[in-house]
Specification:
Oligomer: single chain
InterPro entries: FANCE, Fanconi_anaemia_gr_E_prot_C
Number of strands: 0
Domain Fanconi Anaemia group E protein C-terminal: 4-184
Organism: Smutsornis africanus
Number of helices: 10
Radius of gyration: 17 Å
Order of helices and strands: HHHHHHHHHH
Protein name: FANCE protein
Pfam families: FA_FANCE (PF11510)
Largest sheet: none
CATH class: Mainly Alpha
CATH topology: Serine Threonine Protein Phosphatase 5, Tetratricopeptide repeat
Structural class: mainly alpha
Number of domains: 1
CATH architecture: Alpha Horseshoe
Helix content: 55-70%
Length: 185
């Protein structure tokens, strides 16, 4: 039903509806029984939020944050696969988008989705834009699976020369050594 759902979203102009109505719509989505399928939730995450988030030039409104948080509370896996992945892959600074992802990681995502975000970051070439996201993940102090932890350590070691003058990288390595000192040799 993806083409039909995309058509319905287009017909209802959900990608451009006022943000206060977006909050109400997300409230209705959370009340649906049975829950949306993964595919439907992914389509809605894209239709409702992707354009809004990618076009942010300033801090998101409280309405947009409320809508993101409510949607994310129930459909965090498809949300991360669609929206967070797109933000992470987006070239350029993306300061507001990065801040938004960090806030979602710190306050909204379940532990399994926090690990998913970290794995998404580690699939990309590390950049200044991605360092705060990794810092936010570490700030959650979640237990990382050994393979993900090893990949993080390996990535940080390999990228060290590229970030020789980066304050964000230094903060990240310090946090890593502090939080996971028993695992880092």
């Amino acid at each position: 039903c993806c083409p039909q759902l995309e058509g319905l979203c287009s017909f209802l102009q959900l990608s451009t509806c006022p943000e206060h109505l977006l909050v109400r719509f997300c409230g209705w989505l959370l009340a649906l029984t049975p829950e949306l399928s993964y595919t439907s939730a992914a389509v809605l995450a894209e239709q409702l939020f992707l354009r809004r988030v990618l076009s942010l030039t300033q801090t998101p409104s409280r309405h947009l944050m409320a809508a993101l948080a409510s949607f994310c509370s129930k459909y965090s896996q498809p949300f991360c696969q669609v929206l967070v992945a797109a933000v992470l892959r987006e070239p350029g600074e993306g300061t507001e988008q990065t801040k938004l992802v960090c806030e979602l990681v710190e306050e909204c995502l379940e532990p399994d989705c926090v690990r998913l975000v970290l794995s998404q970051v580690l699939e990309l070439p590390l950049s200044e834009k991605l360092l705060p996201v990794v810092q936010a993940v570490l700030g959650r102090q979640e237990v990382l699976p050994p393979e993900l932890f090893d990949l993080l350590v390996l990535t940080l070691c390999r990228q060290a020369p590229a970030f020789a003058t980066s304050l964000n990288y230094a903060k990240l390595v310090t946090a890593m050594l502090t939080m996971y000192q028993s695992q880092v040799s």
